[in-house]
Write a structure and sequence with these properties.
Blueprint (H helix, E strand, L loop, with lengths): L4 H9 L8 E3 L6 E5 L1 H19 L2 E2 L3 E7 L3 E16 L2 E7 L2 E25 L1 E29 L2 E12 L2 E7 L3 H39 L4 E4 L3 E4 L7 E2 L4 E5 L3 E3 L19 E3 L7 E6 H13 L4 E4 L18 H6 L5 E7 L4 E4 L4 E15 L2 E20 L4 E18 L6 H26 L1 E2 L6 E11 L2 E10 L11
Antiparallel strand pairs: 1-16, 2-14, 2-17, 3-5, 4-5, 5-7, 6-7, 7-8, 8-9, 8-10, 11-12, 12-15, 13-14, 17-26, 18-19, 19-21, 20-21, 21-22, 22-23, 23-24, 25-26
Helix pairs in contact: 1-4, 1-6
Keywords: Glycoprotein, Signal
Organism: Apostasia shenzhenica
Protein name: BPI/LBP family protein
Amino acid sequence: MVAPALPFLLFLSLISNSASSPLQSHDEGFISAVVSEKGLVFVKDLLVDQAVKSLTPLRLPDIDKSVKIPLIGSVHVSISNITLYRINVSSSTIRLGDAGIAIVASGANASLSMQWRYSYSTWVLVPIELFDEGSAFVQVEGMEVDLTIRMENQGGALALNATQCSCNMEDMTIKLDGGASWFYQGFVIAFDDHIRSAVETAITKKITEGIRKLGSLLRALPKEIDFGGIAALNVTFVDDPVIGNSSIGFDIDGLFVPSNSEIVSSYLYGESHDLVYSVHCRDPSKMLGISVDEAVFNSASMVLFEEGLFHWIVDKVPDQSLLNTASWKYIIPQLYRRYPNDEMQLNVSLASHPSIKVTSKNIVAIVFSDVIIEVLDGDEAIPVACISVDFSVSGVAGISKDNKIVSKAVLKDFSLTLKWSKIGNFHMFLVQGVMRIFLHTVVMPCLNSHLSKGFPVPVIRGLAIENAQILTSSSTIVLCFDVAFANSGNFTDVSS
């Protein structure tokens, strides 16, 4: 039975279409990604939404203070259980610049609740301590939070730092439940600035901590993705992110290496990759564009070849009579004479790794294989001849309704060369018809069976891909798509 390694490799490569509208990133990455303005707005809205959820409810430190009240004297006041329980952001913006990524949430309002208590001493013949307690509610209007984030490459990982974070409030209204009338004005005068400062400080600290945690999560991301303990994809970042006027670009090394080997950029190519990459999307409003260079597929091909995975024993075919020497009686007469009516099998292996070439029209895979004809004599397989079969396939691909990459390959051409024979020489043009049947009825159906099942596009859990397109340009394959919340639009699934 044909192993899945070659179909998987060819499936990765058989994607084609056209492209326009460039968004650029740079340097040595073989996989490039660009987040467009629309994508940045989505990320901004997501960050703002997650920030609001992390801030509510938020417990603030208690406040104690002595207040001078006319005719009363010194009054000790304490505020406890100060809780920010609601924030509503009316608008937010994201700006890109030399300083980094600036996110501003403006026109926000917030609500707080708290408990208050006051006490003071007075004389009525003897000292008497008087006290009262109750609740208070604070309404904040016109709050603005300004955050600037900087991203940089640190040893192949993406580092995220908050270089500036501030919170400012325009108006704040305090409402007391309970308490004497004289106490209200004194409370507002004494605690207005304290409450403002506590809220602004707590929000700034919480957001900064959130960015720090997000940065730690990004730095902890694996630098390689393992595929079955055989190959690993090098996903280290190359150079710093490229921040444009309305987009951010990332370059990833993107080459496959043998599993458990040291991750080194351009491991299989021995020379620097100096091409300037562009992510081309026909529709520039797509949230995300990912460009994959043909070198990625060729590196996978080389690793699989070096690991010895391109080898198959073919003993079952649709027309089983082809694997009996009687069917070869007039094609290779000496084979039939020496082994009359014996069963056969084909021992197929690749002479070198398949070569993948991406063009603006289609994608071609060239395969160099050796097919050893083996005659079965009891439990023994007797090799009688070896034929070099070099063939090429090409294909186009698209996106299915369930956002899987699907494709179909077609055989372009093939050539045969007799490599060696133990039954004497024979003409390849006589074998060509049988080999064409083998390629069309065994190899191509097996390959297309895998391609038709589709390959799901990787996406963060809790999100779904929408409006995906596959494009090609010279040497690169590009996937462009939008993302949206899956199911009910709740992103909490990400942490589950």
